[in-house]
Specification:
Blueprint: H1 2-19, E1 26-32, H2 39-60, E2 68-74, H3 79-89, H4 102-115, E3 119-120, E4 138-139, H5 145-159, E5 168-174, H6 177-180, H7 183-193, E6 196-202, H8 210-219, E7 223-227, H9 231-242, E8 250-252, H10 259-262, E9 273-276, H11 285-295, H12 310-333, H13 340-348, E10 351-352, H14 354-360, E11 369-370, E12 381-388, E13 393-396, E14 401-402, H15 405-423
Parallel strand pairs: 1-2, 3-4, 5-6, 5-7, 7-8, 8-9
Antiparallel strand pairs: 9-12, 10-11, 12-13, 12-14
Length: about 425
C-alpha cells in the first residue's frame, strides 16, 4: 500500500515538474571563442553578448518575466568544433544560434533548418540567407557582406569625384568562406563602374602577408578593401603603413574595424577607415545600466576592460536583436516561455525603429530596419568610420549609406535559387 502511495506522489511531482511555468527558462547559446588565434576578437564580442543577458536578468528579471540562461560552448573559431557545440547544446532548448563565424554558419544552416531552430548571423554568414522565401530559418540583418562591398565601393566613388573608371581596387581577404564572400559582388561592381579588381588572399591566421604587400606596392591600387579578422587586420595595417599607402584609401569591412586592429600600429594607423553597422563608443544610456547592474557588481563575463569597445558593442547588439525578437515572439504567441519556432516568428517580424532603440538605451545606435517574410537581411546600409590615432577613438565620417540593390538583389536571387534547386526547397511567403 505504501509503495502505491509513494508511486502516486512521485508521479504527481513528475507531472508538476513537467508543466510548471515557474521552471521555464529562455536559453541563448553562446558559441564563443575565447581561445585560439582569434580569441582577442572573440573575447570582447562574447563579453558584450553575455553581459547584456546578465543585465536583463539583474534589472528586468529576464525577458517578459522569464529568466535567461546562457549556455556557453567554446568553438575556437573552428568549424568542426562549432558543429560539435551546436549538437551538444541544441537539446538545451536553445532559441537562436549566433556563431560569429561564416564557416560555422554555412555548416549549421542545413542542420538548424532541419531541426527548426533559427540562426542569426548579423553582418556575416551566407549573404543569400537574406532571401526569406528560401531560407526560412536564416537571418542576417542589419546588413550583409554584399551590402558592405557595395557601400565601400560607393565611398571610394565619392572620394573619386563620382567615378571609379580606370581606377584600381585591391581586395585583401581572409582565405576562407568569410573572406571570399564579397568577391562576386565586387566583380559585378567592377564591370558596372569600370575599375580594375585584384584579389589578394591571406592564409589563416594572417600573420604572413609580405608577398601580398609587395604586389600592392608594385600594382599601386587606388583603394584597398579588406575582409580580415584577428591578427590579419593589424598586420595588414602595419604593412600598409610600411609602404606608405594612404590610410584614408584603406577601407576594412566591419570585422576589420575594432580597436584591436589599429592600436598595434600606433600613429601609423591614423586615418584608417572601416565600415560600421553600429555607432562606436559607449556614450549610450544602456552602458550606464550595464555598469550599474553588471560590471560594478562583479557579474561581468570579463574584467570590464572591453566595455564600450567596438566588438563588445557588437556582441551586445547581437544580444539586443535576439532579445527584441524574443519579445515580439512572446507578443505574437501570447506566451512567455517561447520555443525556437516561436523565436523564428519573432525574428521575422522584428522592427528596429528609432523609437525602439531609444527605449532600449541605444538611440541612433544602428540603421533602422524591418524584417519581413521575404527579407531577413534588413535594408542593406552601413556607415564609414575613421580611426583617430591621437585621440584613440573611432568616429563616423558618413551617415548610413544604402547599398546598390540593383546589383545585390539579382545576385541574392540567383544564389538562393541555386540553393533551393540543390536542396529541393520551394519558395514561401506567397
Amino acid at each position: 500500500m505504501m509503495d502505491k502511495i509513494k508511486q502516486t506522489i512521485l508521479s504527481a511531482l513528475a507531472a508538476l515538474f513537467l508543466v510548471s511555468p515557474v521552471l521555464a527558462e529562455l536559453v541563448f547559446p553562446s558559441l564563443s571563442y575565447r581561445t585560439g588565434p582569434y580569441g582577442p576578437n572573440g573575447i570582447p564580442f562574447a563579453d558584450g553578448y553575455e553581459d547584456y543577458f546578465t543585465l536583463l536578468n539583474e534589472r528586468d528579471g529576464g525577458i517578459g518575466g522569464e529568466p535567461i540562461r546562457v549556455v556557453k560552448c567554446e568553438t575556437a573559431y573552428n568549424t568542426e568544433k562549432g558543429v560539435e557545440c551546436y549538437e551538444s547544446t541544441k537539446g538545451e532548448g536553445s532559441l537562436v544560434y549566433q556563431p560569429l563565424s561564416t564557416g560555422i554558419t554555412y555548416q549549421l544552416i542545413p542542420k538548424l533548418s532541419a531541426d527548426n531552430i533559427p540562426i542569426l548571423s548579423s553582418g556575416y554568414g551566407r549573404t543569400s540567407g537574406r532571401n526569406g522565401k528560401i531560407f526560412k530559418w536564416v537571418f542576417n540583418f542589419p546588413g550583409t557582406y554584399w551590402d558592405a562591398a557595395s557601400v565601400a565601393t560607393n565611398h571610394a566613388m565619392d572620394m573619386s569625384d563620382g567615378s571609379l573608371e580606370g581606377k584600381k581596387i585591391a581586395l585583401v581577404y581572409h582565405n576562407s568562406a568569410y573572406g571570399k564572400e564579397p568577391i562576386r559582388t565586387l566583380e559585378v561592381l567592377s564591370k558596372k563602374h569600370g575599375f580594375e579588381l585584384s584579389l589578394l588572399p591571406v592564409d589563416h591566421p594572417g600573420q604572413e602577408q609580405k608577398s601580398q604587400w609587395l604586389q600592392i606596392r608594385r600594382e599601386r591600387p587606388d583603394y584597398i578593401f579588406m575582409w580580415g579578422w584577428g591578427v590579419m587586420n593589424s598586420v595588414a595595417i602595419q604593412e600598409a603603413a610600411n609602404i606608405r599607402f594612404p590610410m584614408e584609401n584603406f577601407i576594412g569591412v566591419w570585422w576589420s574595424g575594432s580597436e584591436n586592429d589599429v592600436l598595434p600600429a600606433g600613429e601609423a594607423a591614423h586615418g584608417y577607415k572601416s565600415l560600421a553597422m553600429h555607432a562606436p563608443g559607449d556614450n549610450f544610456p544602456v552602458y550606464d545600466d550595464m555598469r550599474k547592474y553588471v560590471i560594478d557588481k562583479g557579474l561581468g563575463a570579463g574584467d570590464g576592460s572591453n566595455v564600450g569597445t567596438v566588438l563588445y558593442s557588437r556582441g551586445m547588439y547581437a544580444a539586443i536583436m535576439a532579445t527584441e525578437a524574443a519579445k515580439v515572439a512572446q507578443e505574437i504567441h501570447g506566451v512567455k516561455a517561447i520555443t525556437p519556432t516561436m523565436m523564428r516568428d519573432g525574428l521575422e517580424n522584428l522592427e528596429m525603429s528609432e523609437e525602439k532603440m531609444a527605449a532600449i538605451g541605444i538611440p541612433g545606435f544602428s540603421p533602422t530596419f524591418k524584417a519581413t517574410c521575404e527579407n531577413h537581411g534588413g535594408q542593406g546600409s552601413a556607415a564609414i568610420q575613421q580611426w583617430d590615432a591621437k585621440k584613440g577613438t573611432w568616429s563616423f565620417i558618413t551617415d548610413y549609406m544604402q547599398s546598390d540593390q540593383s546589383v545585390i538583389e539579382p545576385l541574392i536571387l540567383a544564389d538562393s535559387a541555386q540553393f533551393a534547386a540543390e536542396n529541393n526547397i520551394k519558395e514561401r511567403c506567397n
